[in-house]
Amino acid sequence: MDGIPVTSPARTWLDLAAVLPFEDLVAAADHFICRQTRSFGHNRVPFCSAEDLKAQVDRHRGARGIRKARAALELARVGADSAPETRLRLAIGRAFLPEPVLSYVVRDPFGREVVWPDLTFPEFKVAINYDGGHHLSAAQKEFDRRREALLAENGWISVVITVEQVSEHGYDGVARLIREALIRGGWSPRG
Question: At 104, is the secondary structure helix, strand, or coil?
């Protein structure tokens, strides 16, 4: 780049395996492979594909952090918008809850897009949104209020996880709120 040799995004991610904590490595993989096409806001083009990351892992079997990279790649998913969303998804897995769907569009009865929740459980009509620090502005609060109303109007159970809740209870602690919503939506912990 501009005459300076650089590594590819996939190789950079593999190099990070030697220095990043495990969940950060999963979040980095999610970020690198994220692809989203929405009718609002910005679209996301991935830096590389999951196949590119896997090819790096396969090609560099003796690299530092290779076991961590292989395990992180198993948990990487396309569609996570942020590291907190990834951490929340991982906590959901540790709580033995169903795997959420990313980049799901909630539609009204006429098929029109209503909301793009961060994580969803469509079978149980449960939507999860992580509201970080940028959700404190007046404009964002109004957008979030409308989002919640639209979800309720369309029969969805909504769970909003805030940065304050995560600070107080941790990701594993807030996963219980998701568990409760799933049970209200008809999910049974016994399978």
Answer: coil
